[in-house]
Amino acid sequence: MSKRINSNISQGIDWTMIWLYAVLVCIGIMCIFMVEYRPGADWLASFLGGKTNYSKQLIFAGVCAITATFILLTDSKLFTAFANILYAFGIVLMLATFVIGKSINGSKSWIPLGGGFNLQPAELCKIFTALALAKFLSRQETDFTKLKSQIIGISMALAPAVLSHFQHEDGLALAYLSFFLMLYREGLPPQILIIGASVGVLAIASLVVEPKILTIALTVIAIVLLFLLKKQLKRNKRIITVIIGVWLICVGFQRVAVPFIFNNVFECYQSTRIYSMMGKDYDCNLNRHKSKSADKPVKKPDDYNVRQSKIAIGSGGITGAGFLKGTQTRGKYVPEQHTDFIFTSLGEAFGFTGCFIFLALYLFLLYRIIRIAERQRSTFSRVYAYSVASIIFFHITVNVCMTIGLFPIIGIPLPLISYGGSSLLTFTILIFILIRLDADRQMVLR
Amino acid sequence: MSANNQNRSRVIQIIFASVFIIITAQLIHLQIFSSKYKLAAENNAIYRKIVYPDRGIIFDRKRKALLQNTISYDLVVTPVESKGTDTLSLCNLLGIDTVEYKRRMKDIIFKNTSVRPSIFEPLLSQEMYARFYENMYKFPGFILSERKARTYPYNIGANLLGYIDEVDTGFLRRHKDEGYEMGDYAGRAGLERTYEKVLMGQRGVKRFIKDNKSRIQGAYENGVFDTSAIAGKNLFTGIDVELQKLGEELMTNKVGAIVAIDPKTGSVLCMVSAPTYDPNYLTGNQKSKHYADLVFDPRLPFNNRAIGNMYSPGSTFKTVSGIIGLTEGVITERTTVNCPGYFEGCGTGKPKCLDKGTFNFKEAIAHSDNTYFSTVYKRILDQPRYDGADSALTVFNSYASTFGLGRKLGIDLPTEQKGNLPSSSFYRKRYKGNFYSCNIISNAIGQGEVQTTLLQLANVMTIIANKGWYYTPHIVDSIDGGDEYHLLDTFKIKHFTDKRIPDSIFDAVQDGMQAVVEYGTAVRSRIPGIVMCGKTGTVENTDHGVKQQDHSFFGAFAPRDNPKIAIAVICENAGQGAWAAAPIASLLVEKYLRDSIVGNERKAMYEEFKNKNLIPKLMRLQMAKRDSLKQIKDNQLLLQQRINKESNDSIDEENTDPEIKTNTPKKNNAPSPKTKNVVAAVLVNDEKKYKKYNR
């Protein structure tokens, strides 16, 4: 203990991570600069002026640097000690938003802090959840092979998600699903992932394929299965029940559950976005939530965002248009380009080469985190590291896939790149707590 | 357990990698294999602005500009972007109603899609431009686009110069690969049309970056891909502004044409077609209205009568038949023929001649003796060395065609007619077999089937002046910066008449033509101090079988020794050649040779002919009819407006009654029911009154 205090604080710190972090933040500021830059403007002055988004992001980066330094100066034990309290605090904050929350862009998930700053508890709660889960799983009495522990773990991960959903922040809610990846690493049965994936495939299939044809296809698969498993059937009659049961569930899901979800659970715009990604029209009249805009005529599915985003990225070609030369970026064709669609500016300016290098950087970051995770002696640090990797991975995947038309549009920022103080600060804290924990990897934290 | 978990770490890494691969695959698909996104991006962001070059300017022989360029503005709209435009104030500015606005918009979208810019109102006046300029912020989707327009400082040469107009779909189809677009202007008549390629120049394209609201953000790639506009080349014509102006002045209120040629070069000095119009009429935003006015004018002002009308040449043709007669040897200069008042050769008593007496060749020309030239023509056709009139006519035509008759001369103007030299086969068909000289004797004096354009007649005068050669008449002498498309090559070839015609014969004809002016038919048109050779023509003509007043013709050249101008004039239905055409020609010749008209007598002549109204009776009737029709139409319109107004008023009155209000349509209500009501009301009132008094 005394040895650590006496030693340099930089001891044990993973500099690769810090460099990666710094590079990504710089790329982020550059991307925002590309989006906002107008020829003829004095960019140096506006960089320092604090009026434009890139200069604001620069200020946020400064704040983050200070925060990061503070985190590196703290004691790792602090995180284990406060994990549960912080989690509880986060949940309370999220509940509080329902009372004192402020509505921004249609989602009541912000707590005004004064001075024009707003806090989004759901964002912060990611950190707290990661810490709390780490704490829970590292408890000596927790045996994660037991169903009870698994249910507690899942509940802990999903509680903020449910709250987020009721705040109409489905992007944030979705981000909490990433904890499943970490839970899987810690022993969650793989069936959950497999079943989850199957449900996803079936859901997509029931959107893309005509319902009748899909029913027939499912029936054919079931019959073929029965036919193939003829011999086993004679020995074990239960297989018939299982197959028929699964078949019934699938058909029911496809014919009843999917339409029900789209018409009653999702908002009209969400259903429209998902449908339009599949290249289909969604009739909002079917939607339960349509009443809000009942008097407005039904609009065609608005795939403007995705189309423009794909155009911007696609026009980059192999080498891109060049720094500050992207016509789509300059023409502001992509909406929300400095936040959720920041990847398009990169894609247009630097083309496939740039995107590939950029994604490789991300992949390197993720692998680095996993390597860090695997070298931890304490379960707490490992679980936390996996949580960080999962969250970052999930954000990257959803965000990038959304810009290239592989995922419906949902408001999820690109980690460390997208404009926005909340998001940048969250990821900074996530990463630097990890770096702090990693620096103390010789200790056993509980 | 731990091993299992290690395994799962692998699985997670594999998941990361596979997602990375999926994303990369999609990126490859989007960025490397799909070209459509690049195109879509260009469509999104690049605005191609066509830069119209200055059209070439057309100069006269003294380098005075016959037409010039000026800038005017079009109101251009891109329909998709025009949402949110203050339609009402736009309509107020333009003086149209919203129905018209919607109609135009629909039209534009139908013709040119709703995403491409189209002209909403062309060629705004200066005042209109200023008013729009202040209010443009109210009209998103509308822009004021610069357009170079023509202006004509001398107001002359409308038919000659032609006009430019917006291209139509037919034009675009015919000139597919020449880069015209809807909304472009192209020369549609006259020199503007013939020299379109030279005058139009090369259009430039500027590329701009525009943003998502179509606002220009700046040049694309700093203008590396821009092409600059290359101005059209200037044309230098042989036209003499002063002469052209005088010609048009003298031809006011007349129907006809003038062509004057420089015999040495073949360049046209002036070409007047009357009635003409102010070329400035076809610029500006009232263009289409003026255009319609001109198209429906019964005097056909768009018809260039100098090249587009074929006339019987009348007595002016005697020069040609005389030359051929002398060459063929059927007469000599000393041959005399007696005229008893009509031509005896065919026994029909036709054609008649005005001066009785005996004439030799010179006197016959001087007095335009019909009998003499009928005799000559008959002798030519009846020559025993040819096998009948049939082949003799072919020989005659072979001479005549070297005078540029019966075919297009190839002047650099559209709509040239070729005239007519009736062939043997034509007559064989008409007379069902053989024909005789007497059948076609009227050709001798230019009254039969022979037809020429005025240009051909002027060219014949050139040939006589030059004694046997000519250059193809042409308006444009040279092109600024070289004749890239070889448009002027044909004008550099010297054409000769039949080699068998010696100079002496031309001398003889010139003698006769000099006599015409000195003491012959055109003695009134003699210019003191200038030796002019001329020949009058008086052409009988009919309209739908009804005989009209004769056409007045005159062909001349001067001075005889060193000819500088050859001229031909026609005044339709103005009587004898000496009455109208000859004086006009003489005034032009004097003006050209002396730069002014000298002497009181001559000045008086100038005043007289300037003010003379010789519009044919038939045309006057038609014009009066048109005007009165127009008046009737106007009256009807006025009447209709008054009726509408009244009926509207009446409806307003009726609407005060709540019962009627519910089911009376506001518009198009015939006034009759209302009048009935009123009458009924009046009756009722009267009845009441009556009853009242009764009580």
What does the model show?
Chain A has helices spanning 2-6, 15-36, 43-49, 53-73, 76-100, 121-138, 147-166, 170-175, 179-185, 190-208, 211-228, 230-235, 238-265, 268-277, 304-314, 327-330, 342-374, 379-403, 421-439, and strands at 102-104, 107-114, 117-119. Chain A is mostly helical. Chain A has 3 domains: 1-65 and 303-446, no CATH class; 74-188, no CATH class; 196-293. A 3-stranded antiparallel β-sheet of chain A has the order 1-2-3. In chain A, strand 2 and strand 3 (117-119) form a beta hairpin. The longest helix of chain A is centred in the last third of the chain and has 33 residues, at 342-374. Chain B is α+β, with helices and mostly antiparallel strands and 695 residues long. Chain B has 3 domains: 47-237, Penicillin-binding protein 2a (Domain 2) (Alpha-Beta Complex), CATH 3.90.1310; 242-288 and 303-476 and 493-615, 3-Layer(aba) Sandwich (Beta-lactamase), CATH 3.40.710.10; 619-694. In chain B, the strands form 6 sheets. In chain B, strands 2, 3, 4, 5, 10 and 16 form a 6-stranded mixed β-sheet that branches. In chain B, strands 12-11-20-19-18 form a 5-stranded antiparallel β-sheet, sandwiched between helices. Chain B has a 3-stranded antiparallel β-sheet with strand order 1-8-9. The chains are: A mainly alpha (446), B alpha+beta (695). At the A-B interface, helix 9, helix 15, helix 16, helix 17 and helix 18 of A face helix 1 and helix 2 of B.
Supply database-style keywords:
A: 446 residues, 3 domains, 19 helices, 68% helix, globular, B: 695 residues, alpha+beta, Penicillin-binding protein 2a (Domain 2), Beta-lactamase, 5-stranded antiparallel sheet, 24 helices, disordered C terminus
Unreliable segments of chain A (pLDDT under 50, ≥5 consecutive)?
A: 1-6, 291-301
Give me the oligomer status: heterodimer
CATH first level of the largest domain in chain B: Alpha Beta
How many individual domains of chain A? 3
Determine Rg of chain B (CA atoms, Å).
36 Å
Number of domains of chain B: 3
Residue share in β-strands of chain B: 15-25%
Biggest chain contact: A-B, 49 and 41 residues
Number of helices of chain A: 19
Helix content of chain A: 55-70%
The shape of chain A, in one word, is globular
